[in-house]
Design goal:
Layout (H helix, E strand, L loop, with lengths): L2 H7 L12 H17 L1 H5 L28 H7 L28 E2 L10 E5 L5 E5 L7 H51 L18 H6 L12 H4 L25 E3 L6 H12 L7 H47 L4 H10 L1 H4 L2 H17 L4 H8 L8 H27 L8 H7 L1 H26 L4 H5 L9 H21 L14 H4 L1 H13 L8 H15 L8 H11 L2 H15 L14 H29 L2 H26 L2 H26 L22 H14 L3 H4 L10 H33 L11 E5 L2 E4 L1
Antiparallel strand pairs: 1-2, 2-3, 4-5, 5-6
Helix pairs in contact: 2-5, 2-9, 5-9, 9-10, 9-12, 12-13, 14-18, 16-18, 16-23, 16-29, 21-22, 22-24, 23-24, 24-25, 25-26, 27-29
Length: 797
Amino acid sequence: MKFGRDFEGQMIQEWCEAYVDYRALKLILKQILRFRHRDPAFRRFPPTPPPPPPAPPSSTTASVNNSAGGGGGLTRRISLYRAFSGLTNRAKGSPRKRDKHNHHHNHHYHLFDDEEEQVILITEDETANYTTTFLNSVDDGGELEVMFFRRLDGEFNKVVRFYKQKVEEVMEEADELSRQLNVLIALRIKVENPMANLPDINGIHSSPVSPEHQSNRVPDTSPMATIKEQEQGEEETSVDGNRNKGFKPAPLEMLDNVKINIKPETPLTMLKCMISSLTSKQTFSKSELRTAEELMSRAFVEFYQKLRCLKSYCFLNQMGFSKILKKYDKITSRNASKSYLHAVDNSYLGTSEEVSRLMSRVEATYIKHFAHGNHREGMRSLRPKAKREKHRITYFLGFLSGCTVSLAIAIIVLVHIRNLMSSEGRHQYMENIFPLYSLFGLVALHLLMYAADIYFWRKCRVNYPFIFGFEQGTELGYREVLLIGSGLAVLAFLGVVSNLDMEMDPRTKSFSVITELVPLALLIILTSILFCPFNIIYRSSRYYLIRCIFHCLLSPLYKVVLPDFFLADQLTSQVQAFRSLLFYICYYGWGDFKRRSNKCYESDVYRRFYIIVAIIPYWFRFAQCIRRMLEEKNKDHGLNALKYMSTIIAVATRTLFEWRKGTYWLTVAATTSSIATVFNTVWDLVHDWGLMNRNSRNPWLRDKLLVPYKSVYFVAMVVNVVLRLAWMQSVLGIREAPFLHRRALLTVVASLEILRRGIWNFFRLENEHLNNVGKYRAFKNVPLPFHYQELGGAKRV
């Protein structure tokens, strides 16, 4: 694989603009190469390739101090209550030490042997910007080489600035985590009261410090203290080898001004927060300790992922500079790489060791405080294994897909052989059995579209696992989703084959009970699989779906996040599936399923619920928009809520028109549906997709596009508008089509909406990904558990 492709494949996609633009530099080198091929002077004297430049040294992660989690038994237990001295070694209030390469400026880098000709001169100014002077600019083609080094300097300075900014951010975050961990240790002592159960250690009892001594002692809770737990041994050892003699627990007085910051993510926690806000007294309970430990554990894991990404960013850019300079030396027969790579190695990018040191300290701290001293368990949490593609998934996908095609062909052949299309029981079958199986068909089609979305997201490098908040290694790929969809299709087709017998028993005039209960049994089996507690059939993904569904059901009471409203949008395209579920209840509860007959559509109660279940998905989104508008104070969410309210009115009036007819209801249905269609279409294209921007670099599109062909976006716009007009089928009174029963026509219209939703999914997540790229947002924001109150104001600890 070429380095350029491998380089782009290993990028952190949200930081792609901060990497060295290897492709642009390579294009300039191609121009230099074409010029040299055209110039007869270069053709007459072919250049000899220079020796390859030295590769940049690869930084390695410092080894983990195993003693941080070791000690066993009492030793490890005591260390859990020791005040934490911090992840960094910066003194409180003192400015950060300048790196060794910043002690002096205006450096000149020109490494070359006596027999070698000097090609470039690199200078570093006071702002740590590097400028390269090409000394052979008067040569033929020299202006192209000047342009190359000018672009190279721009990329190098961009990379150094970005890396330095990110390192400063993680150092500040490390300080914050250190302060939070000190409070967590104090809370652990407060809740668990470990001193009462600890024995005397070398004649010194580990009881709590007396109030007199505690009041006189001034604790140093600075996260930037020079004493490092991991580097200086956390457990002081006396001359005679006795350990823990110098044990000092974390000071408890810091809890006096601490407020536990557990956000109300559920209705129950919201109620607790409301009650606790009425009482000024702090209650430190074991449940709050567990929640705080969970939040801190997640924060440390996410922080460690940032460090790993920063380290990868540093290494990849160093490798990129090395590779592009090697190509330059090969094309121009010069030896400029030594000087430039020496500047790279001596820059902040090559000399900064903060990230490696932080990684080792975070590993040691996490293993001790959150992994019970188990090194393997701690590293498994910090470094989750990447998901691997399994051959059995591909095998079963091919097998079930083949079964699906075979069963579909078998059904067509059976219908043709038995002449079921003209059978007397055709209408009876379509009115009673077809709606039951159409539910599975609509779900399977949605899974197919979702699998296609995943495939194209991966192809366009959209980081959908991060956007949806999947745990690393648990996200489903398109093969897994296709496997689930094909398995569902096989079960549904087998049920259809069992119900194709339209001949009744002449004596009882009823069908076989077993075959008539197949759809209900299939629905119960699939529901049982969804809620199955065993670790089979992608349990983490099933629980993720259940949690999102539960949040949608109680959408006004839960904080709205992207996975929740994204799922609610999917549900708005499954209105016909909701109505099929309602038909299940009516058909098997009050219908005569043995004779394939029902009077559901004649019941006023059923008709009311027929409208209600169609409105429910849109209500989810309406409630979510209202909550976001109140929390974020953004009027756009209010407009979005009006959009869903217009859709609710349109769906209700179209359904009423189907039953009541008349010019009045026709006018109302057509008017409300037209308003809702225009509102939804404009919102999709402008807000969700980020298109229709006439002032962008790509007229009527975004400034940045992931799909290389612009025509795809315009075709998608047209298709979105056309598919949104499917509601006209009901308003125009089209009840049946040639060779299609009215129930089949409803399913086809519902399928068109699912296809439109699948197209919407791709562009909606593309827009979200580009927003993350523009803000360099590559990590989740994990809330920290504590706030420190000072002088009546709230301040983070």
